[in-house]
Amino acid sequence: MGWIATTPEERRRQLGSFLLGTGGIGGIAAATGPGIGLSQEEGHKLIDRALDKEGIKVLDTADMYAAGASERIVGTWNAAHPDTDVLIQTKTGVTAEGPNLAPDRVRRQLAHSVAVLGRVDLYIAHQVDPNTPWAESLPVFSHAVESGVIRAYGLSNVDGAALSSALDSADRLKLVRPELIQNQYSLLARSDDQDVLPIVRNEGLAYTPFSPLATGLLAGRYSNGEKPTHGSRASIASRHAHYFDDEQVMVKIRAFDRLAAEHDVTSAGLALAWLVNHPLVTAPIVGPSKESHWTAVHEAQKLPWTSQLADRLDSLFS
């Protein structure tokens, strides 16, 4: 029996409807530069808002976000709020030289993250390391659970084969199993439908997708040929860049915008509602930095959901 709840409903109660992504605090993900991302003061205000008004239960960061600034700022907030019961989740394994889950490095990085953040509740292998077998890296995560350093661990950016291999390795070596999966997933990025989500369902894993709005493409920002502005997530992240020049995709997005308007919600609200109502999604990761971003979160929670609406979205983004 792991620490994460076993049923989808219990997992949502445990982790909340949304996780707060803090990659934009101190910078945007791995990016740094003048005017990009939230300052420490802005980051602290965002966390306060998320916990006090929005019911957020998990703060998500990583040791490489903003060259470590994200963890440091979350850590200073945590030090000023010693009695909070929010869960702190961080990740390791992404380096400038490529993926690295070597056991010694994972141990060092976990110790560093605990020191910077004050504690780590949930720890995630950020990327598959082709040079380090799961049989070498997973014992470090398992031992961290067994020794009480963390409560549970998970995997990010895994396909079905890598996830199956990790679970098999954990079982064969009698280790604590990974309990959380954090992959890119949205109406525009649905490859996990084929191989990852069936495993999530069969193994009772938590699934907390990132990039739920496809860096703004599903937020109605670029439907009419607009280009990302400097400092926006879309200007930094490259995973969706090819969509801007794909007219077939943009036609779908414009139809999606019209569907959102039919239901009197923003495009972002509809995109998040699809995830909130997905039976295998525990909680998407969001990183609001403006009031309008919170509006989309509220819309997603309040929108009456029907099988007809789900079918229309599946048909549009098959």
UniProtKB/TrEMBL annotation:
Superkingdom to which the source organism belongs: Bacteria
Signal peptide (from-to): none
Residue span(s) of domain NADP-dependent oxidoreductase: 34-316
Alphabetized UniProt keyword annotations: Oxidoreductase
Record has Oxidoreductase as a keyword: yes
PANTHER family for this protein: NAD(P)-LINKED OXIDOREDUCTASE SUPERFAMILY PROTEIN, NADH-SPECIFIC METHYLGLYOXAL REDUCTASE-RELATED
Name of the featured protein: Aldo/keto reductase
Taxonomic lineage: Bacteria, Bacillati, Actinomycetota, Actinomycetes, Kitasatosporales
